[in-house]
Amino acid sequence: MAGSIDEDLKHFLNAMVSKRVCPGCVAFICDSNGPIFSHTTGSRALLPQPLPMTEDTLFDLASVSKVVSTTMVAARLVDMRALDYKHTIGHFLTFSGNYRDVTLLQLLTHSGGFIPELRLWDNISDPDDAIRFILSLPPIASPGTSYTYSCFGFIVLGKILEIVFGAPLDKAAQELVFGPLGMSDTTYNPLDSVRFAVRPIASTERNSDTGTIICGTVHDENARFLGGVAGNAGVFSTAGDIHRFLRMLLHGGNGDRGQFLSPDRIGEFSTDFTPFAPVGRGIGFLLGVRGDTPLGHVSAPRSYGHTGFTGTSIWIDPERDAAVCLLSNRVHPMRTDTRLLEQRKIFHNLAFTYADAYHKEIKGIQK
Predict the structure, then answer these.
(1) First to last CA, the chain
(2) Virtual CA dihedral for 221, 223, 226, 230, nearest 10 degrees?
(3) φ, ψ for residue 203 (rounded to 5)?
(4) Is domain 2-366 annotated with CATH 3.40.50.300?
(5) What is the 3-state secondary structure (H, E, C) of 124-174?
């Protein structure tokens, strides 16, 4: 049974490439014991010359950065008692504008009343003015009353985490997240490092200003304006490192190098803090409890995950003891093709069906 679904999955992923839904991808399924399926197909670049996709290709995670980095830094600081999700923006920032009473929990669940985003570079000339500009904008709702997915809220959150940790967000993420989890292939601004600059990196979009293909520089324009390190985007990583990250979540916070997060913090990722919203949001993560999610048709009410604009996604189902990851560069060479959004649901559906069949076969063999 699992064998036939294995072939279905590979055929589906290969077809996404042949139909030009994305140039290439690396996909895997894992349980708490390790990977149970993986497949690499297509190209990491089409322009200016074709380059093959490899299993160790670095991908721009886009908004998956929000959970791999920003959310994890916040959760670790809470475990260290350096932070409390009940703290407000006004607790940390001397200028909090119209958002003084917004809590970190509301930032993490996109319920702080922030607009989704604007082009920062069209409104300010100095990246150092970004936080003041964002906090000067009028709220679109009272805190904790409605849900609007907001990159601006996470940019503010990233700045607060820098204040608490006492260093830039990339340094905080390296010390609190990437290092402890053994994610040695995960970084911000990979071209700034000789070690990363020579690695295969999935290309993204053609830069409208220069005409060149973006590769190794963050695709998200606001994160790029902010220097490549921001609370909403900027992380580059590989399938191998995301596997380490997902296994930690399936192990209840226990990573390969020991306890990374407390069970309480892990439980909050799948707790519905937005019962007033059409979708469920846990700390940092989107939930599978209701609404239109990337999950597909496989029922998983306690599951949680996140997606990224560049074509990345992760989804975790603790009850199944399974997690799935799809890393692609669907915005290469242009972002206009959005077919991956629906194809991703089919992938998740096939992937969790495969995990169910795999575990059923393993139990049958053990009997």
Answers:
(1) 17
(2) 170
(3) -75, 150
(4) no
(5) CCCHHHHHHHHHHCCCCCCCCCCCCCCHHHHHHHHHHHHHHHCCCHHHHHH
Residue type, position 163, single letter? I
Per DSSP bridges, beta strands 24-31 and 34-45 are antiparallel
Say how far apart CA 114 and CA 142 lie, in whole Å: 9
For residue 38, which phi and psi values (nearest 5 degrees)? Answer: -155, 150
Please name the residue that has the structure tokens 């990977």. Answer: 35
- Outline where DSSP puts E strands in the chain: 24-31, 34-45, 51-52, 59-60, 187-188, 235-237, 254-255, 258-259, 286-287, 304-308, 312-317, 322-328
d(CA 309, CA 188): 17
Q: Which residue has the tokens 């071209």?
A: 191
Q: Is the pLDDT score of 365 beyond 70? A: no
pLDDT, tens only, 185-237:
999 999 999 999 899 999 999 998 899 999 999 999 999 999 999 999 999 99
C-beta neighbour count of 199 within 10 angstroms: 17
- Chain length of the chain: 367
What are the strands of the beta sheet with 24-31, ordered from one edge?
51-52, 34-45, 24-31, 322-328, 312-317, 304-308, 286-287
Q: Which are the contacts of 210, defined by CB distance < 8 A and separation ≥ 6?
A: none
- 66's CB contacts (< 8 A; 6+ apart) are 154, 231, 232, 233, 284, 306
- As a whole number, the mean pLDDT across the chain is 95
Q: Is 355 left (phi over 0), alpha (psi -120 to 50) or beta?
A: alpha
Interacting residues of 131 by C-beta distance below 8 A, sequence separation 6+ = 93, 155, 156, 159
For residue 28, the one-letter residue type is F
- Amino acid found at 93: L
Alpha carbons within 13 A on the beta-carbon side of 267: 4
Residue 271 to residues 85, 110, 150, 278, 309, Cα–Cα distance (Å): 14, 14, 19, 15, 24
Burial of 91 (0-12, 13-18, 19+ CB in 10 A): middle
For the entire predicted model, the pTM comes to 0.97
